[in-house]
Each structure stands twice: as structure tokens, then as C-alpha cells.
Specification:
9% of the residues lie in helices and 38% in strands. The protein has two helices and nine strands, in the order αβββαββββββ. Strand 5 and strand 6 form a beta hairpin. It is globular. The chain starts with 5 loop residues before the first helix and ends in a 14-residue tail after the last strand.
Length: 112
């Protein structure tokens, strides 16, 4: 495993946000949702493609908080531009479990 400096870690903008809209990404090659996540006043609402259909429904995601990397360059994924990366851990059999705060916190807060 390669080590990084504290300064490298500080460059990664891991922020908390609330899913305000979630929809099936019909054009995706593999099952996915398009998430619209409110990262607070400073960052605003960003869009992301997330392959999390095994464990989550669009209705169940709306209103939940997630952790995302908000300072990656925009990435074209089919017809959408993904503006952030929503984080999670894959289970042993593949589905991704989202990283979420244990308790509600303000949108836009950076991981400490």
C-alpha cells in the first residue's frame, strides 16, 4: 500500500450532503441511479451516477445523508455529467453499502 502525506489527504474534499432527488439511470450500462445531492450553500447540489441498486431504492435514498468527494473533475457517464463521487464499501458478494453519518449533520461539512 502506498502511503500519502497529510497534505495529500487534505486535498480530498469529502463532504456530507443530503439526497434531494434519486432516479433510475435508464441509459446506464449497469444498473445505477442518478443522485442529486445537496452539499450545502457553498457547494450547492451536485449530480452523481451511483451503482447502488442492489441495496437501495430511489424513494429510500431521498432525504438520507451520504458522503461524497466533491472536488473530482466532472466525468461524462452516458448522457449525464457526474459532478461528485458518492462513497461506499462493497460487500463480499458485490453490492455497495453507502457511507453515511451516524447522526444528521449540516450539509457541506468536510470530513474531519
Amino acid at each position: 500500500m502506498e502511503t500519502i502525506s497529510w497534505q495529500d489527504f487534505e486535498k480530498v474534499e469529502l463532504r456530507v450532503g443530503t439526497v434531494v432527488r434519486a432516479e433510475v439511470f435508464k441509459e446506464a450500462r449497469r444498473p445505477a441511479y442518478i443522485l442529486h445531492v445537496d452539499f450545502g450553500e457553498e457547494i450547492g447540489t451536485l449530480k452523481s451516477s451511483a451503482q447502488i441498486t442492489d441495496l437501495y431504492t430511489p424513494e429510500g435514498l431521498v432525504g438520507s445523508q451520504v458522503v461524497g468527494v466533491v472536488n473530482f473533475p466532472t466525468k461524462q457517464i452516458g448522457p449525464i455529467k457526474s459532478q461528485c463521487l458518492i462513497t461506499g464499501f462493497p460487500t463480499a458478494d458485490g453490492p455497495v453499502v453507502l457511507i453515511r453519518p451516524e447522526r444528521p449533520v449540516a450539509n457541506g461539512l468536510k470530513l474531519a
